[in-house]
Design goal:
About 50% of the residues lie in helices and about 15% in strands. The two termini are about 20 Å apart. It binds thymidine-5'-diphosphate.
Length: about 210
């Protein structure tokens, strides 16, 4: 199932999704958009941050379950994605099921993340920020926190998984009309912002 007015930004670490969300938040139309991100700020999301920081080491399968649990609350919890869309808002989020299919696809194989994520509604618009890991890692090397997936080898495999997963959605009837836009994430941020707005401004909510 696809949810109208639901938009997802995806890409490997350092691809620039958060920068674009920041730019989008500055638009006057942003009052009609609910913004959030995964992992969320909720209890499971906070626990995931500790895992991502390397403080706690878990079996990769457990981590896949936790991402799905965090997502369940994000989607169906009170004030979550479904509620916001039903209240007539657009929803824009940084990362979603495609992150699990790509990152956990590398760490624990494709099957489990697929099973855990099959029931979540799909966005009507998905932006994939494509970039090679050498370039993306250069961008994030000055951050003070380094997370467990932020290395060239892991991100090379993750990018490959993303491309495979998106190809599957493009060719599959269960993608239910989800529009996938691949962005060359090495372009100047102003140019990317224009491309993004050209698509978001076409959502039903901004047409009515
Ligand atoms: P990220 O958006 O990169 O946060 P920040 O830039 O603030 O560190 O997300 C954190 C990490 O979580 C990123 O490496 C991808 C990973 N992740 C998964 O592995 N699976 C998932 O399902 C999600 C949502 C994120």
């Amino acid at each position: 199932m696809t949810l109208d007015n639901f938009v997802v930004f995806e890409g490997i670490d350092g691809a620039g999704t958060s920068t674009q969300i920041k730019i989008l938040k500055e638009r006057p139309e942003s009052s009609r958009i609910s913004f959030s991100a995964e992992p969320t700020e909720g209890p499971t999301g906070r626990f995931l941050r500790e895992i991502l920081g390397g403080k706690i080491e878990l079996n990769p399968k457990t981590t896949a379950f936790l991402f799905a649990a965090d997502r369940a609350e994000h989607v169906w919890g009170k004030g979550g994605i479904v509620d916001s869309v039903n209240e007539g808002k657009a929803v824009v989020i940084d990362r979603y099921i495609f992150s699990s299919l790509a990152y956990q696809g590398v760490s624990c194989g494709k099957e489990l993340p697929r099973k855990l994520n099959e029931d979540f509604p799909l966005p009507s618009l998905l932006f994939f920020f494509d970039i090679n890991p050498e370039t993306s890692l250069k961008r994030i090397k000055n951050r003070d926190v380094t997370e467990i997936y932020e290395n060239n080898d892991y991100l090379t495999q993750t990018r490959k998984q993303y491309l495979e997963v998106l190809e599957e959605y493009k060719n599959n009837s269960h993608s239910d009309g989800m529009k996938i836009v691949t962005i060359d994430a090495t372009k100047p941020k102003e140019e990317i912002a224009k491309i993004i707005w050209s698509h978001i401004s076409n959502l039903p909510i901004f047409k009515s």
